[in-house]
Protein 1
Amino acid sequence: MRRKVLDVAEAAFQARGYHASSLGDLMAAAGVSGGALHHHFPTKKALALAVIDERVAAAVEETWIAPVRQAASAREGVRQVFDAVAAELERQGFVRGCPLNNLAHELSLADPEFRNALAGVFSAWRQAIADKIRADQREGREQGADPEHFAVFAVAAYSGAMSMAKTAQDAGPLRDCLAALERSASQAASSQGEPVARRRRRVLRRHGIT
């Protein structure tokens, strides 16, 4: 029964939002009484926190963290996630947005407990990407990358692209971000293979210094 309530609440919060989903609607959809619901979740807030901790965090783990950890490199993992999510959105024909992003937009200013729970999921997401960059660096790759900055960039790019895709109901922004990420990866690889002195001269010429 607890799982059923979480299933219903997760779907409702993503489709309509937390504030627009009443406990009465959730009980009716789950087919449970008020007493049964409150036995597991004494308040609507407790239910939402459980959705964040058990469902939203799990979605980020499945969609992002596990694929990045298993990928050959951090950049390849990020590329694979963008590509897989865009393909899935194109297959299903609609965009509900990132579950974490959706709740963050609605709840981050509503309550500090919501904000802390959501921030914890974002933190774990960024940490997984940063850790993968560090693993790459131990193998001689990504020597010029700052792991934390790369992780923030990847998460922000995805979150922004998903918000735009949701608004447009089109996976195009994810495809555009993927193309930009691949160009930056090619440039980074080229830069890493270029002698330092030559790279410095090229940067100076670009800025009109020499």
Protein 2
Amino acid sequence: MITKAGSAKWMGGLKDGKGTVSTESTALKDQPYGFNTRFEGQAGTNPEELIAAAHASCFSMALSMILGQSDLTPEEISTTAKVSMDKDGEGFAVKKSHLTVAAKVPGASEEDFMKAAEAAKAGCPISKLLNCEITMQATLA
């Protein structure tokens, strides 16, 4: 089993408070976040953005692995995930993650690429973690 850690510190109330988020690897170290970065479009990070980055990177690696199982090596996989959070009862919930992927895969047919992309969408560990609708637009260059 692989275990990775992230941490957050929050100080103050919801709207006037401030927090920092860090990762075990220190790729993120005390990065600021707050109500304004999450709900008001201010510069800085937020939980949904971090989930989107995790989903895009996990999907890209899974797609590379699945293509490799068919002896196809991608030159490039470029993925963006857009995570949508909506009102859910009295609170909020992540309801959707939309993946947009463009890839250069020498020797891959459109059919083989789409089959691999769908398998990666369903099978990457972060897709399995998310309890939301996952949609995708995939393009083979």
Protein 3
Amino acid sequence: MLRFAAGAGAALLLILAGFFYWQSLAQREDGIPRPPPQRIAQPDGEDDQEGPAPPPSADSRTKEQRRFDRADKDKNGRITLAELHQPRRRAFARLDTNGDGRLSFEEWAIRTTTRFQEADRNRDQQLTRDEYATTAPRRRAPARRQNCDC
């Protein structure tokens, strides 16, 4: 019988401890300050009212319409083959180092060859693990979101 009473007492103590812990968490959450209200400018010159700022307007064009507009370089509502080739011509011209209009394997692989030569510090035409680690692509920093109070 003594074991039963000790077990019931221990259970009650655990329940009370859990209840007080739960209450302490609830009190901490209430202490978070609320952000100050933003002011909205009225278009007709009236006094500002307090309240949340209006959301920014979204682009009404669909993704496919935006893609079409990027490809339509002369903005005439039609895409010609020359307009589709334009970005590829620039990329080809960067690779065609001798300007003969033909792309050899060496011209195509110039970036890889250059990176290999830069990484090969001891000039033995082989990369060790440490040398190869320097060729890893650089990761871009994530774009920062701008909080604009416009």
